[in-house]
Predict the 3D structure of the following.
Amino acid sequence: MSFFDFTAKDIGIDLGTANIVVTLKGKGIILREPSVVAIDQVSGDILATGNEAKEMLGRTPEKIKAICPMKNGAIADFTATSLMLKNIMKKINKEHAIGKPRIVVGVPSEITEVEEKAVQEAFFQSNAKEVYLVKEPLASAIGAGLNILAPEGQMVVDIGGGTTEIAVMSLGGIIAGKSIKAAGNAIDECIIKHLKKNAKISIGQTTAEKLKIELGSAENSVTEKTKEIRGMDIDTGLPKNETISSHLIEEAMKGPIQEIIEAIQSVMSEVPPELSADLVDNGIYLTGGGAMIKNLDNLIAQKTMQQTYIAETPLDCVALGTEKIVENLQKYARIL
Ligand SMILES: Nc1ncnc2c1ncn2[C@@H]1O[C@H](COP(=O)(O)OP(=O)(O)OP(=O)(O)O)[C@@H](O)[C@H]1O
Ligand SMILES: [Mg+2]
């Protein structure tokens, strides 16, 4: 790094509903943590953020509140989000002395102006010098290695915790797109409901997410897997162990998966013919944690008749995209 390189400490952030991923210009990912914060209700102090706070979800006494302050990719609880971001910036500053950085933040494509202001304000309060917002599908496409500035159609489906964002892009703009709530959290909720009804057991979010990751699949699997879990018997109210089969989880996931497929088909039908032809060559890229749902790529390929690829590091695409943007703000100026 040269002595005159004043902008070396700029950062790129994916402010996700489920995970916050921070990159430092030229250094790649420097921090990754769940978007959860635990706050002392009496003093208002932060007790924990990230993994430590996630462990507390659903387990806190009255005095402590552990919350996910982001909902559907937007800021639901401004005070908690600000506190969380300040804490994250403090952590980063300790290790990397970023000072007053320029920040590029990946935000949901359907964010309102009020929410945009809230995101910017939260970062200014955490010592940012300049804050640029980029729409999540654009950032994730860049992070997946696509050249979104080229005059050709590229399609990305980013399946996050709060939203699935589908977009067809060309020349740095979104030509057709959709943001739906059928995504990771909604799938977890469906699993909770399905087990309550069909296995008479009540489980929490964390267990549902584990079941989704370990047993879940977008298509019926040939070999059945099982996992033993612990929850509450809904008849007796007492704790019980239960062996859950992959088939039960696959059934539970069907609804939201179907919604994702239909939304992809609907976006594809809105694309003008020239760009539609490009999609045949370029295929569909899946990003976000939901891209790792087993067999989802096969199912999408089958239902859309297009080649479907899972990005190399689906959880990091938005953050890596913001890093590329912050490295070259001039090149990407028109998408910010
Ligand atoms: N191996 C996996 N299989 C299925 N789902 C997974 C896997 N790994 C992570 N997920 C899910 O991915 C989601 C988180 O993805 P990601 O970090 O991309 O979301 P986010 O960017 O924080 O959310 P959003 O983009 O909606 O704001 C969670 O719902 C998580 O359960
Ligand atoms: Mg995301």
User: Anything to note?
Assistant: Residues 12 and 269 are 33 Å apart (CA to CA). Residues 246-269 form the longest helix (24 residues).
